[in-house]
Amino acid sequence: MVDTAHRNTGVDGVGGGVGLTALMVAAGRALEGGRHDSLARDDFAEHFVLAAPASAGWPVHPDQVPDGEANPLWGRFARYFGLRTRVFDDFLLQATHVGGARQVVLLGAGLDTRAFRLDWPAGCAVFEVDRPGVLAFKHQVLDGLSATPKATRIPVTTDLRDDWVGALTDAGFDPALPTAWLAEGLLFYLPAPAESQLMRVADKLSVRGSALAFEVKVDKDLWVYRDSSIYTATREQIGIDLLTLFDGSPRPDSAGDLADRGWSTLVQTPFDHSRRLGRGPLPVPNDALEGNRWVFAHKTHPYT
């Protein structure tokens, strides 16, 4: 049983700002799971959406979106979240089942449920790093569902602007073991120095055989897309103005920095994966997604 103070803290953690975007992504995953050609399925996602007052009226099944795929938010943007979930799911499963990593670190884990959804190899530990309020809400919902993780799940309650490394190691993370890292939907919100520091720390904590995936934007001026259909629909339909939440400073070349530190890197667009999988968003005019890049890195030798 979660006490009242814990419950209120949890709801507050996703009630506004960046926390509210975690609910938007959860709604996108719920919608994706209801599609006839679903790319990913998350049966927990709709429970997060319905449990929070801020999102209780949002759609969680395609039948609840009258204009369907034509809706920029609950159609195209939600499909983007489904595609991203599928691609990063595949990355983590490859890094663990084939690459041999037995530690997975989800940076800014939000309402991610991969510890519960995916079939992990034996002995795998999944560290979920996020702010206390977000994880409290997550625990409230999952405890109510009696959800059982498929790996050793270790919540790490900390802010990535604080000493998250200390919190991670205190939770049992072993830097001597290969690790699969994921920063999904996170770096947009961090100042450029924080992104660079995160990459340096992840490199320092990674031995050969580790893998890292993350999402960035390469646009120099995101406000060019202020009137794009996705940003407009998100503002008008659910009151989230993403451009005021994103950090507007010039972004570092994190993929290049990792390459200099001994990582092999592959930089792709989401549309590359839409074409590969035969479904998902494709480019449109004035496209807020055209600057998005997904980076997949593997540490092939230590930096010296």
Report on the structure:
The protein is of the alpha/beta class and 304 residues long. The protein has a single domain, classed as Vaccinia Virus protein VP39 (Rossmann fold). Helix 2 crosses helix 3. The protein is built from twelve helices and seven strands. Helices cover 42% and strands 14% of the residues. The protein has a seven-stranded mixed sheet with strand order 3-2-1-4-5-7-6, with helices on both faces.
Give the helix proportion (percent range).
40-55%
At CATH level 2, the architecture is 3-Layer(aba) Sandwich
Per the principal axes of the C-alpha atoms, what is the gross shape? globular
CATH topology: Rossmann fold
Largest sheet: 7 strands, mixed
CA-to-CA gap between the ends?
Answer: 50 Å
Helix tally? 12
Order of secondary-structure elements: HHHHEHEHEHEHEHHHEHE
Please count the beta strands (DSSP E, at least 2 residues each). 7
CATH homology superfamily name:
Vaccinia Virus protein VP39
Strand content: 5-15%
Give the number of domains. Answer: 1
Structural class: alpha/beta
Mean pLDDT equals: 93
Note poorly predicted spans.
1-10
Order of strands in the sheet with most strands: 3-2-1-4-5-7-6
Radius of gyration: 18 Å
User: What's the CATH first level?
Assistant: Alpha Beta
Kindly summarize this structure in a few lines.
With 304 residues, the protein is of the alpha/beta class.
Q: Which characteristics define this entry?
A:
42% helix, single chain, Rossmann fold, seven-stranded mixed beta sheet, 304 residues, alpha/beta
